């Protein structure tokens, strides 16, 4: 999860988030190089009085500064499209969880089980135990198995919400009357926090998301205890 004064992204926990971090670094380097070149040219134009007429009117220079931006755009677009297709790909999910947004809490249903569903409310500040995080802890965590492909179906009962967990690279809008889907897979166990990322009313800030990723045998014990 994020920590105070953090400038970068949270640590990646899924293969998709790792790809997103690499793409961010790739694009940021291109932006840095372009900015440095433009700054250098501007400073050069302001500090020197020398001009070269053949350079100012040359067709070769115009050709270069037309083709070069096109190449740069291709270098950005191709990795971006690859990641977009990877994020939409869902191959034989091992588990499906239906997530419904409400004002202002989340409800979850494990559709592969007959009667495994619950609501998830934020724990008020006055009821927090030592070590628990204010505005991020919930009374019922979403327990999921790690290293398995999990499909998440997201919708809403009332207004627009957005189900987002940054460290897993997830952000899916919850729209009334529409069922969106996303996929997640965690490479390591742990607690992963998120929040509603769509302004949905007065208590928008008070509907957190907590995913608890555990090994498969622990998940089976938890699911058996919930039934």
UniProtKB/TrEMBL annotation:
Q: Which GO terms describe its molecular function?
A: copper ion binding; cytochrome-c oxidase activity; oxidoreductase activity
Q: Which GO terms describe its cellular component?
A: mitochondrial inner membrane
Which cofactors? Cu cation
Q: Where is the Cytochrome oxidase subunit II transmembrane region profile domain?
A: 1-91
How does this protein sit in the membrane? Multi-pass membrane protein
Function, in words: Component of the cytochrome c oxidase, the last enzyme in the mitochondrial electron transport chain which drives oxidative phosphorylation. The respiratory chain contains 3 multisubunit complexes succinate dehydrogenase (complex II, CII), ubiquinol-cytochrome c oxidoreductase (cytochrome b-c1 complex, complex III, CIII) and cytochrome c oxidase (complex IV, CIV), that cooperate to transfer electrons derived from NADH and succinate to molecular oxygen, creating an electrochemical gradient over the inner membrane that drives transmembrane transport and the ATP synthase.
The family line of this record is: Belongs to the cytochrome c oxidase subunit 2 family.
Instruction: Output this protein's name.
Output: Cytochrome c oxidase subunit 2
Ranked from the top, the taxonomy reads: Eukaryota, Metazoa, Chordata, Craniata, Vertebrata
């Amino acid at each position: 999860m994020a920590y105070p004064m953090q400038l970068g992204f949270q640590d990646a926990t899924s293969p998709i988030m790792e790809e997103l971090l690499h793409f961010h670094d790739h694009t940021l380097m291109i932006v840095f190089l372009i900015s440095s070149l433009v700054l250098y040219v501007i400073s050069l134009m302001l500090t020197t009085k020398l001009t070269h007429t053949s350079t100012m009117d040359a067709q070769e220079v115009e050709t270069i500064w037309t083709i070069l931006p096109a190449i740069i755009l291709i270098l950005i677009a191709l990795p971006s499209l690859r990641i977009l297709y990877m994020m939409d790909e869902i191959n034989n999910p091992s588990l499906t969880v239906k997530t419904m947004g409400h004002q202002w809490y989340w409800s979850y249903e494990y559709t592969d089980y007959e009667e495994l569903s619950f609501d998830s409310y934020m724990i008020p500040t006055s009821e927090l135990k030592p070590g628990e995080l204010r505005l991020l802890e919930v009374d019922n965590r979403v327990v999921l198995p790690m290293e398995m492909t999990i499909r998440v179906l997201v919708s809403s009962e009332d207004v627009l919400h957005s189900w987002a967990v940054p460290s897993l690279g997830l952000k899916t809008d919850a729209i009334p009357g529409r069922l969106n889907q996303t996929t997640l897979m965690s490479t390591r166990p742990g607690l992963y926090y998120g929040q509603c990322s769509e302004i949905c009313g007065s208590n928008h800030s008070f509907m957190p998301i907590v995913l608890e990723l555990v090994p498969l045998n622990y998940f089976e014990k938890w699911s058996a205890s919930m039934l």
